[in-house]
Amino acid sequence: MNDMTLLERDVDTKNIKIAANNVQVYYGDTHAIKDVNVQIEDKTVTAFIGPSGCGKSTFLRCLNRMNDTIDICRVEGDILLDGEDIYDPKVDPVQLRAKVGMVFQKPNPFPKSIYDNIAYGPRIHGLARNKAELDDIVEKSLRRGAIWDEVKDRLDAPGTGLSGGQQQRLCIARAVATEPEVLLMDEPCSALDPIATAQVEELIDELRQNYSVVIVTHSMQQAARVSQKTAFFHLGNLVEFGETGHIFTNPEDPRTESYITGRIG
Amino acid sequence: MTETSQSTENGRKPHGGSLMTLSKRTARRNAAEKRFQIYGIAAIAVGLLMLIILVSTIVSRGVGAYSQTFVTLQVELLESKLDKSGTRDLEKIKKVSTFGYAPLIKNAFSVKLEELGIQSELSAKEQAAILSKSAPAQLRDYVIANPDKIGETIEFRFLANGRVDGYMKGRVSRESIANDKSINAEQLDFVDILVVNDVIEKTFNLDFITGADASDQRPEAAGMGVSMIGSLFMMLVVLALALPIGVAASIYLEEFAPQNWLTDVIEVNISNLAAVPSIVFGILGLAVFINYMHLPTSAPLVGGLVLTLMTLPTIIISTRASLKSVPPSIRDAALGVGASKMQAVFHHVLPLAAPGILTGTIIGLAQALGETAPLLLIGMVGFIASNAPDSLASGLMSPNSAMPAQIYEWAKRADPAFYERAWGGIIILLVFLITMNTVAVILRRRFERRW
Known about the structure:
Chain A is α/β, with parallel strands linked by helices and 265 residues long. Chain A has a domain at 3-8 and 15-111 and 183-260: Rossmann fold, CATH 3.40.50.300. Chain A has helices spanning 3-8, 56-62, 93-99, 114-125, 131-144, 148-151, 164-177, 194-207, 220-226, 244-249, 254-260; strands spanning 16-27, 30-41, 45-49, 73-81, 84-85, 100-103, 182-186, 212-216, 229-234, 237-243. The longest helix of chain A has 14 residues, at 131-144. The relative contact order of chain B is 0.10.
């Protein structure tokens, strides 16, 4: 890891895509996320790092309201997507999730054909008027997921028959197919081998051209490799947030330093 | 711990000694394991033995019901007896009762004996008594259906009397009829002669599978067919009600309902309902469906409703279990691409749970099919179903019996010929149950997915 390139990595846009203000999350009586303020920029990869149980995944799942499926989970504070509060009672989480796609830790393709995996989102959101348009969307999404060349001859094969890395890229392609503006990735490489990880990381860097990407990762090297911004969480607090190069070379908080040097975590 | 530390203090290693010799402790452990395996094998052997005894008893006792003794006779349909006016007026022909047909049968016997050159000391009445009491009725039905045949000589296959049938199957012997008023030893001799001359023969009896029940006097004519139709209509009611209600209830409870004390109470009660004795559902059905709602007694609709109540908990429990077994990552995946909760459930979770749901439903149906106790209370036992229903509505609303109820009914009648039919009926019931369970297993194998 070359420190100089990290520092020089430019962040081309400064548009704020998601702004979280004083976010608190409770699981029953447990205060899981404490007073988090973070600004996520458009066309940027933002990495959330931190030890296990620090709340980074929980916070990520707040950004597309996946926590709604957990009965005892309660979110306070504002999370604004393009200036609109996503926890406003008028907001339907289904509409939100079409805008904010998600890729999960374990590759979870539907037990259907590769084609149907990709086409499902566009179908339920009515993005294609006919079969030809749907075919286009599927091809475009699979290309964006960097998996088109591997599966173009077997679109009818079940998605669950692919290798782990291919499955995860299929899931990314599936998330991309609904034309989201933000992509949330919850440890997308933790179930993959190093080669598949490298492919997915390369893909994440390409996705930055079009989307705002938020990635939760256990691997500090991965955060350093793919992200422009990094947030360090510890025990439910956002300890430090800034340019990735800055966090890794010159952390301000002693806890961040301890974590990236391997003393805690 | 103490043992180990003591032995170390004594200067001995805790695992001292050669690996080649078996330590006492290991030997004991191995012996215990061996013993346990022997117990297990013994338990399985006992179970298998019971199964073999059960199946062989059922088959050996029931198989007799599938063959039946028939007497073949040429009967001259005398115009002078059946249609004195000679006008072939159906109304007049119908006025001749079965008593009018009895002489024709007696005639047929004497003609047959003459043809074969046999002398018999039996009276004509005694000769005719080896036939079933339904023989004149069979003749009459034929004549009414074909009045133009009057005057001709037609060959008929009559059912033999239950005693004669029993004699042919070895159930009745000359000793066993010593006190029997309905048949005597001379008649059995007569039967022997007719057997030699191919007038009496024992063949496969399709009527037992397709026919209706018969009165106490005619065990030879009784069949399972109509009660099978009764069971079929009950199963239709159960399937049409229990499957949608059960699946809807389980989907709501499993996927949508909030987790609170109310849903907990519902959950516990559903589990408890599955263990409630079926006769309780029977008396509930009697009180609600018959006494309060005034639905007809003995109707398969009522039976189906009662069995629905009984099957619902089974279906709900198995459906919830199969919904639970669908990994949450599938739900996450669907929600993650912006599917609504309902879309996630109906597009992804339900298709994956379907084999489990179907299996549970079939097992529930099989349970309901074999259920007798609730039918006792709503009057589906004791009614003799003599006619097959002619439409869906009459199938549901007109009184009928059900297979297990029919078996119970036969088993409690006095004539041993009915006892044989009860065993025969059990074979049919078992074939149905085994078929349903096999279908359930095949469905599970075929559609089970791994992820």
